[in-house]
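Quick question: what would this complex look like in 3D?
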Amino acid sequence: MSGVRHHLSWRGQDVELLCDRRGDELSVRRGDELIEASIVSEGERLVVRLAGGQVGGVVHLSREHVVVSYAGRTWALHRSHDGGAVSAAVEVGGGDIEAPMTGTVLDVLCAQGDEIEAGAPLVVVEAMKMEHRLVSPGAAKVMSVDVSAGQLVDIGQVLVRLELR
Amino acid sequence: MIQRVLVANRGEIACRIIRTLRALGKDACAIYSDVDEDAPHVRLADDARPIGRAPAADSYLNVVKVVTAACDMGCDAVHPGYGFLSESAAFAEACTAAGLVFIGPPPDAIRRMGDKAEARRVAEKAGVSPVPGYGGPDDDATLALEARRIGYPLLVKAAMGGGGKGMRKVGCEAELEGAIAAARREAQGAFGDSRLMLERYIHPSRHIEVQILADTHGQVASVLERECSLQRRHQKVVEECPSPAVDEGLRARLSDAAVKLAKAVDYVGAGTIELLVEEDGSFWFLEMNTRLQVEHGVTEMVTGEDLVQWQIAIAEGARLADGLPEVLAPRGWAVEARVYAENPESGFLPQVGHLDRLALPGGPGVRVDCGVREGQEVTRHYDPLLMKIVAGGRDREHARGRLVAALRDLHVIGPATNIAYLIDVLEGDAFREGKTFTHTLETSGVPVAPDEIPQAVLALAALSLTKRGPDGLGREDGLDRWSPYDRLGDFRLVPPEGAS
């Protein structure tokens, strides 16, 4: 099969697409999977007809991503420009508790060395005037607490490091 | 007659009020904080003034700045919208003192119904039972004693609260102390008043509210009920009008209670009486909101009335009898979904960021009240509500289908949103069967992110990568967002040589 190869990745998985477009017919091969699509519209909304019916969405292309909005969700596919293997975004270890958004730490409910159970409250973060309680994803030991009450934190900032048991 | 109105708000509700003002031929003036200089409500308005920094306390909540801006722009009236200063008696008084008509109820009614403990007493006197609970001196020891009397589970609520802020469900005595502390902090932060009250957690129950309109001549009309049982952390998610649980008999009893309550506080304007309704049709007074509600659009869809227009007409002295039908029966059905910048898959945390793309749905029976635009930054300073989609139809299923289709045709690329979650709720058995209770969403499981990419997404991604734009590239980041070549969609002109 001929076509243009696009190297993408999603959550660390390689998504390699071989795309062949002839007029309004588009075939997309991903590994053993073959998707045959008829192009219905290429306006602001892209619409294609697949075997299961017609689907539509909006796609935003940036240098780094192909972001597809479809059925209420967005899918950010990372683009690789060198055509080689894609280095996925650094995966955060399961034991790091990150600030889910920019806000203020209201309270720290754990201390270094604590042995905690799944669901144990760790940190309370306030954002948009609502309090959000971050809990442990599993039984764990608290390796370090990297914030204190009153501190402003950025989205993604590591608040607490855990070693999951 | 009112000529020029300051809309003392932002976002979708400011835009919605400005549209009615425009339809009435009245001038609409806006205010904006630093981060809102280019926001949709400012663009829509005839005139606008900056009023301070992004935090609401420095801008939209600052009475002096808001009143000064209204006077500066030569306004003769103020519409507060919902949230911000809409339930501030002090703001209503400041407007009146500055010679501005406050488009809302009298300060005394705002004050009495805003204090939830006082509202309970008003309801009792009017013969409408409040939810069993306690509203009085609120030191921790007294609350603990009263909690034991009421029994668990119960709710700790901010006495001056609303919108779910400063509210906590308490399952057992061990949780009480922590819940009181958290609710006090939230109440102080959100309302500047940390007083709390207690209510029995009535279960199972539906949240049903009655829209009322009251004129300055003593007439009060009930304008149907809305059901808003589908809530998450006490924030409404999906609302509808009428309620699938209300028949004509119950509607008459709910309306009668609402009208009595409004009369008990000499209410004027648009207001909402919130009730908890049990399966056997018995109901309890929850609270009264002395303002326009977020979800007023579903009422407008099935009555054909414009509630903002009525608020203004009432402020001008109009009589309800001159225009409002004596008996309002629902015409068809309407359902609303609230679209928030929040991530359902990470505990519904509010999301911020640049709105790269925004494509809105439309079509018969679909109303979009949107407060954001493509290219705008969604900040952490304000409520994460981006827009409301209301769909109406000949019956409930017709409206539901239209709303699902509209949500599937709504595209927001930027901050994460709850759109997929809304679709799941509307497609779920509980909503389809009308079995909606206040606990339904809390107990329906945690949304999880898909772990596979659907074929549709791969096909759309592939199409965008092979799309034949004038540059052969489609829309790349870095193109001029406002370039006409970039805005024509399917129909494109070929840009001259060298154009980006």
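Answer marked as accepted. Chain B has 16 helices and 23 strands.
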